[in-house]
Specification:
By secondary structure, this protein is of the alpha+beta class. The chain has 5 helices and 14 strands. The longest helix has 18 residues, at about 210-230.
Length: about 290
């Protein structure tokens, strides 16, 4: 069944009423909802300033609750979930409900999920946690086919070769296809996003004690983007231009099961080419050169 395409600027959205945002929000007992045809999304909030608040999200169809979720550890209105109806999967006959919220933390974080309907009913799909705020992961129809995706960047590259401030990360595209979350980053339909990122990267940082790590991060993001575009020899430039004296240790654990708490005697140092290939392979990039 064909669904009416809803342009991004007309997407219905459930959020804290603007009048509440303009003044101090009384969160305990706060409710807000939105509906489209027979489907309604609603949020109810309870709690207090000391212990935090809980936001209960319910999705109903024809008056019957079909899905729900609970969001905890909320200490300000900025942590409350927002939802919008948006076309993200044209394999069904209902718009998806995209839910996101800000979770706080340094350089962090927005979490997002999508409620979608299949032949077996509604289900919640976890998109995951993303660096930045919820506005940065709002679905958008970047290839103008009537279906929206989430365009973000690959968090795996942050802190890998240098500090957060000096890190570069390739673009990443997430979508919903046939009721499942799919990484669409290597899909040729989104090549323009990667080419635009290459234009935005600017000049490669200099080699040196203070900037060598930034240089290597730039090269890693550049190589990953070429790989996603299917360019020939995508790692060659990075392999021949990296700074071997960068002041940022690259290593792995000889026992992968102990990666998060690796004993010192099992830490194995890596060269930049080795670390780059490990990162790309671990992050699921296609056809990583040896």
């Amino acid at each position: 069944m064909m669904k009416a395409v809803v342009p991004w600027f007309a997407m219905a959205m459930i959020a804290i009423p603007s009048c509440a945002m303009a003044q101090e929000t009384k969160m305990d007992g706060l409710t807000y909802d939105i509906g489209r045809n027979a489907v309604r999304a609603a949020v109810s909030v309870s709690g207090n300033d000391n212990d935090g608040y809980v936001a209960k999200f319910t999705l109903s169809e024809n008056g019957t609750i079909v899905a729900n979720a609970e969001y905890t550890d909320i200490f300000s209105e900025y942590g409350l979930p927002e939802a919008k109806f948006v076309e993200m999967d044209n394999s069904n006959d209902e718009l998806e409900v995209f839910v996101s919220r800000y979770t706080g933390g340094a350089h962090c974080c927005a979490e997002a999920s999508v409620f979608t309907k299949s032949a077996n009913g509604w289900k919640q799909l976890q998109l995951g946690d993303f660096d930045g705020d919820p506005d940065g992961i709002a679905p958008q129809d970047v290839d103008y086919d009537g279906v929206s995706e989430v365009v973000t960047y690959d968090n795996a590259f942050l802190y890998y070769f240098t500090s957060y401030a000096g890190s570069h990360a390739p673009r990443q595209i997430w979508g919903i296809r046939n009721g499942e979350v799919v990484n669409l980053s290597a899909d040729p339909a989104f090549a323009s996003i990667h080419r635009a990122y290459l234009d935005e990267m600017g000049t490669i940082p200099d080699a040196g004690t203070d900037t060598g790590g930034d240089r290597n991060s730039w090269l890693a993001a550049y190589a990953a983007t070429l790989l996603l575009l299917g360019e020939p020899d995508p790692l060659d430039y990075a392999d021949s231009t990296f700074d071997p004296n960068a002041d940022w240790e690259l290593s792995e654990c000889a026992d992968p099961a102990m990666e998060n708490d690796c004993p010192q005697d099992k830490v194995r140092k890596l060269t930049f080419p080795q670390a780059l290939r490990k990162l790309l392979a671990d992050a699921g990039y296609p056809k990583v050169p040896e």
